[in-house]
Specification:
The complex is a heterodimer of chains A (338) and B (435). Chain A is an all-alpha fold. Chain A has a domain at 110-337: MetI-like fold, CATH 1.10.3720.10. Chain A has helices at 2-13, 21-61, 85-91, 111-141, 147-159, 162-172, 178-183, 194-221, 225-233, 238-266, 270-275, 285-293, 297-337; strands at 68-70, 75-77. Residues 1-16 and 326-338 of chain A have low confidence and may be disordered. Chain B is of the alpha/beta class and 435 residues long. Chain B contains 18 helices and 11 strands. Chain B has helices spanning 2-38, 41-44, 63-73, 88-100, 116-121, 141-145, 179-184, 186-191, 205-217, 235-250, 262-270, 282-289, 331-341, 344-354, 367-372, 376-384, 395-410, 416-431, and strands at 51-55, 79-83, 108-112, 148-149, 152-153, 156-161, 164-168, 195-198, 274-279, 299-302, 318-324. Chain B has a 5-stranded mixed β-sheet. Chain B has a 4-stranded mixed β-sheet with strand order 8-9-7-10. The chains are: A mainly alpha (338), B alpha/beta (435). Chains A and B meet through helix 2 of A and helix 1, helix 4, helix 11, helix 17 and helix 18 of B.
C-alpha cells in the first residue's frame, strides 16, 4: 500500500502531465529493452564467469588424460587427449583392458555401487523424512499450549552442522555406543553389510526431517480454515478432511520440499564421510569424486560431469512430474469449490 | 503461485552464486600475484632471507618455540610459521593448491611421509643433492628411506613414529616375541573374560598401516623395490594377511575391531577389556594418567611380535619430514632451517615437550630421556625394523586398494586368496596409472 502511494507521489512530483498515459508508456517501452540489457549485463557476465567457465573447463578436462609417470625420470608428464576413456572408466568400469576390467579396490570399480547406494539413501531417507515431516508439520500446525517451544525444539537437529551431527551419531553407533546398549545388540554399525547403510539413513532422517516439516508447515498455514469448517458441516471425517483437503492443498509445498531434499541427498558427502568413511560400500558419488580428485583431476572431472547429469536428470523428471501434478490438482479444487 | 516462487528462488540462488563467485575470484587474484614472483625463483637460486614454514596445526605448541630460537639466532633469516588445519587430507590439498599456484611463500613444507613421492614426482620438491645435500648419517635409516623417491632424497625427516605392543603385565608376565606365541596366549584372555588382541582395522588409513605391518612381518611386501610392480601374489603376503583373517575367524581379534581406529582400541585397553593392543606411543602417557584408565600400573610395552625367526615385527613407519619448495626464493635458508629442525637440541625439545618420536638414533639411548619415556628402547627397535608404507606417487590409489580388499577379507566377505588377488590387481592398476 505505502509503496504504491509513494510511486504515485513521485510521479506527480516530477510534474508529468497526468493526462498523457499512452505516450508515456510508449517512451518507456522504447528504452526498456536496452536498459534491461544494461541492467542484466553484470549478472550475466558474473554467471558466465562463475558458472559457465567452470562447467566448460570441467567438461573439456574430462576429455583429457590424467598425468602419467615418465618411467625414465620418475616425473609426471601431461596426459594429452583421452577421448571418452575417462567416461569409459566410470560407465563401463574400463581400467584400460576392456569393460569391467577394473579390479575391486579401484575407484573405477565403484561407480555403479556408489550410484546404487546414493539412490538407495535418497529413496529411503527422503521417503522417511517426508512421512515424519508431514506428521511433525500437522502437529505443529495445531493450536495448543507450548506450540512455540515444540516448533523450536523440532528444528534443533536441523540447526546443528552436519559434521557435528555425523560425529554425534558416530559415537552413538560405536560398538560400545548408546545404540547397541539401548537395543541390547552387538551390531557393528560402521562395519560391513546393511548396518552402515541403516546408520546413515537414520542419521540423515533425524537431521533433515525438521527441514521437511518446516517447508510443509508453511504449506499448511496457507490453507484457509474455512475449507475445513465447510467440510465439517458436510460431515467429513478427520481422515476424509486429511485425504481430500489437507493433502491436495499442501501438495505443491510438499513437492518442493521433496525436490529439495532429493537433490540434497543425491549430493550427500559429509555425513557418510565422517560416519562410516565409506566402509561397507557406503561411498556416495560425491565421496567418489573427492577420492578421485586426489588421484587425478581429469578422471574426477568426468565423474563430476556424470554426477551433474544424473542430478540434472532427476531434477528434470521431478519438475516435469511436479508440473503435471500442480495442474492436475487444480481441477478437483475448483470442482469442490463450485 | 508455485512458478513464481520457484523463479524468485532461482534469482536468489543466482545472486548467492554471484556473490560467492566474487570472493573466489578475488582469492584467485591473490594466488596469481604470488605466481608472478615465483618466476624469479630460479634466478634467485640459493639466496638467503626470510622464509615461511608450513605445517599442520601445532597442537602441542612445540613448533613456535623452536622457530623463536631460530629467529633469535638468525635475525636476517627469520622464519614465519604458517599453520594449516589439523586434518591431514586438508593439509595435503592445501599444499597441492599452493604448489600448483607456484606460491613462493611456501618455502619449507612439512609433509607426511606418504606424500613425499607424489610431490617429488610432480616436481614440487627440491631434490636434496649437490648444494642441498643433507647429512643423514645420524638419522634412523627407515625415516630416510621413506623420503627417498627414485633413489633421491626429497625431504629431511623431522619426526618419526612406530607401532608398539601394549600388554597387560599382570596377566602376561613376559610379552610374546612372535605372532604364534601371542595367539597362544589368547587363552589367558578367555579365562579372564576379556578380548585378546586388537589393532586398527576400520576402513581408513590405519587399516593400511596394520595390514602392511602383517605382510611385512611375515617377509612379504606390497611393492617391489623400484616401486613398479605389485608383489602381493606371494606366499609371504598370504601368510601375513591370513594371520589377521584367522585372528578374526577364531575370535582372538574381536569382530568389533573392524570398527576400531586408534581411539576405540585405546579405550578398550584402558577399560581393561583387552589383553594386547597394537598402537602408537601416544597411548603410553594417556594409559598412565587418564582418570578412567584401569590399567595404570598393570600394563607394559613391547615391540611388535615377529614371525618366529627371532626378529621383531616390522612396524609401518609414521612421521613427517620437511621439504623445500622449488618455488622458494630463499632455499639456502630453507636448507639450514631443516638441519636446525633435525638438530639434537630441537629433537630433544620436541620429545620432552610434545612426545614426538625423534629421528636421531642417539636420543633413544639417553638415560634421562628413557627415565621420562620408558618406552623409548622399544620404540627405537620398532623404528629400526620399520618399513615405510609403499613409496609411490600413486599412494592414494594404492592405499585404497589395500583398504577395500583387506576390509572385505577381515569382515569375512572375501577369502584371503580372493582379497589378495584383487589387491594385487588393484595396486598394479594404481601404480601403472596413465601409462
Amino acid at each position: 500500500m505505502s509503496t504504491t502511494s509513494g510511486v504515485v507521489t513521485g510521479e506527480f512530483a516530477q510534474g508529468k502531465p497526468p493526462l498523457d498515459p499512452g505516450a508515456k508508456r510508449k517512451s518507456l517501452h522504447d528504452g526498456s529493452g536496452r536498459r534491461a540489457a544494461v541492467l542484466i549485463a553484470p549478472t550475466i557476465v558474473l554467471l558466465a564467469i562463475v558458472i559457465l567457465y567452470p562447467v566448460v573447463t570441467a567438461v573439456s578436462q574430462s576429455f583429457t588424460k590424467d598425468a602419467g609417470l615418465d618411467p625414465a625420470t620418475g616425473l609426471f608428464v601431461e596426459g594429452g587427449f583421452a577421448g571418452v576413456a575417462n567416461y569409459k572408466l566410470w560407465l563401463l568400469q574400463d581400467c584400460g583392458s576392456g569393460a569391467f576390467s577394473c579390479p575391486p579396490g579401484t575407484l573405477g570399480s565403484q561407480f555403479w555401487t556408489s550410484t546404487g547406494v546414493t539412490f538407495l539413501f535418497t529413496v529411503v531417507a527422503v521417503s522417511l523424512e517426508t512421512l515424519l515431516g508431514l506428521v511433525f508439520a500437522l502437529v505443529m500446525n495445531r493450536n495448543f499450549k507450548g506450540r512455540g517451544i515444540l516448533r523450536a525444539s523440532v528444528l534443533v537437529p536441523w540447526a546443528i552442522p552436519t559434521a557435528v551431527t555425523a560425529k554425534l551419531w558416530y559415537f552413538i553407533f560405536a560398538y560400545d555406543g548408546i545404540a547397541n546398549k539401548v537395543l541390547g545388540t552387538n551390531i557393528l554399525w560402521t562395519g560391513d553389510g546393511w548396518p552402515p547403510k541403516a546408520a546413515i539413513i537414520i542419521a540423515d532422517t533425524w537431521k533433515t526431517a525438521p527441514f521437511m516439516a518446516l517447508l510443509i508447515l508453511a504449506g499448511l498455514q496457507v490453507i484457509d480454515g474455512g475449507v475445513y469448517e465447510a467440510s465439517k458441516m458436510d460431515g467429513a471425517s478427520a481422515w476424509q478432511r486429511f485425504r481430500f483437503i489437507t493433502l491436495p492443498l499442501v501438495r505443491p509445498a510438499l513437492m518442493v520440499a521433496v525436490l529439495f531434499r532429493t537433490l540434497d541427498t543425491l549430493r550427500m558427502y559429509d555425513l557418510p564421510k565422517i560416519l562410516t568413511g565409506g566402509a561397507g560400500d557406503t561411498s556416495t558419488l560425491s565421496m567418489l569424486v573427492v577420492d578421485q580428485v586426489r588421484s587425478g583431476f581429469n578422471a574426477a572431472s568426468a565423474l563430476s560431469t556424470l554426477t551433474f547429469l544424473i542430478v540434472f536428470a532427476v531434477a528434470f523428471i521431478f519438475i516435469k512430474f511436479l508440473g503435471a501434478n500442480v495442474t492436475e490438482q487444480r481441477a478437483p479444487k475448483t470442482k469442490k469449490a463450485g | 503461485m508455485f512458478g513464481k516462487s520457484m523463479l524468485s528462488r532461482k534469482v536468489t540462488f543466482a545472486a548467492a552464486a554471484a556473490a560467492t563467485g566474487v570472493l573466489v575470484l578475488s582469492a584467485c587474484g591473490g594466488g596469481g600475484d604470488d605466481g608472478g614472483s615465483a618466476t624469479d625463483a630460479a634466478a634467485a637460486g640459493a639466496a638467503t632471507g626470510p622464509i615461511t614454514y608450513v605445517q599442520g596445526k601445532d597442537n602441542s605448541n612445540i613448533v613456535q618455540p623452536a622457530i623463536d630460537k631460530w629467529n633469535a639466532a638468525h635475525p636476517d633469516e627469520k622464519v614465519t610459521l604458517k599453520e594449516q588445519t589439523d586434518q591431514a587430507d586438508q593439509q595435503h590439498d592445501d599444499l597441492v593448491q599452493n604448489f600448483q599456484a607456484k606460491n613462493a611463500d611456501y618455502d619449507v613444507v612439512s609433509v607426511d611421509n606418504i606424500w613425499t613421492s607424489e610431490f617429488a614426482a610432480k616436481g614440487w620438491l627440491q631434490p636434496l643433492t649437490g648444494d642441498y645435500a643433507l647429512d643423514t648419517s645420524t638419522l634412523l635409516p627407515a625415516t630416510v628411506t621413506a623420503e627417498t623417491y627414485n633413489k633421491t632424497l626429497f625431504a629431511g625427516p623431522t619426526s618419526s613414529d612406530g607401532g608398539l605392543l601394549y600388554y597387560r603385565k599382570d596377566l602376561v608376565p613376559t610379552p610374546p616375541k612372535s605372532w604364534d606365541e601371542l595367539m597362544s596366549m589368547c587363552d589367558i584372555a578367555t579365562q579372564n573374560g576379556i578380548d585378546c588382541y586388537a589393532g586398527q582395522y576400520a576402513q581408513y588409513e590405519g587399516l593400511t598401516v596394520n595390514v602392511a605391518e602383517a605382510i611385512n612381518t611375515f617377509g612379504g611386501s606390497i611393492l617391489s623395490e623400484d616401486g613398479k610392480t605389485a608383489t602381493l601374489d606371494t606366499p609371504e603376503a598370504k601368510k601375513g594377511l591370513d594371520a589377521l583373517v584367522k585372528g578374526f575367524a577364531d575370535g582372538d581379534i574381536p569382530k568389533q575391531a573392524t570398527t576400531y581406529q586408534e581411539e576405540q582400541g585405546r579405550q578398550s585397553f584402558e577399560d581393561g577389556k583387552l589383553l594386547f593392543l597394537r598402537n602408537w606411543p601416544y597411548v603410553y602417557s594417556l594409559a598412565k594418567t587418564d582418570g578412567s584408565s584401569t590399567v595404570k600400573d598393570t600394563f607394559g610395552v613391547a615391540v611388535l611380535p615377529g614371525d618366529g625367526d627371532g626378529k621383531p615385527g616390522a612396524s609401518s613407519l609414521g612421521g613427517h619430514a620437511a621439504g623445500i619448495s622449488v618455488y622458494s626464493d630463499h632455499k639456502k635458508t630453507a636448507l639450514e632451517f631443516i638441519k636446525f629442525l633435525q638438530s639434537e637440541e630441537i629433537q630433544n625439545d620436541w620429545l620432552t615437550q610434545g612426545s614426538a618420536a625423534p629421528v636421531i638414533a642417539s636420543l633413544y639411548d639417553d638415560p634421562a630421556l628413557v627415565e621420562q619415556f620408558p618406552y623409548l628402547p622399544e620404540l627405537k627397535t620398532s623404528i629400526e625394523n620399520a618399513v615405510p608404507r609403499p613409496v609411490t606417487p600413486f599412494y592414494p590409489a594404492v592405499t585404497k586398494a589395500i583398504q577395500d580388499n583387506a576390509f572385505s577379507a577381515l569382515s569375512g566377505s572375501k577369502t584371503t586368496d580372493a582379497a589378495l588377488t584383487d589387491m594385487q590387481a588393484a595396486v598394479q592398476n594404481a601404480i601403472s596409472g596413465g601409462q
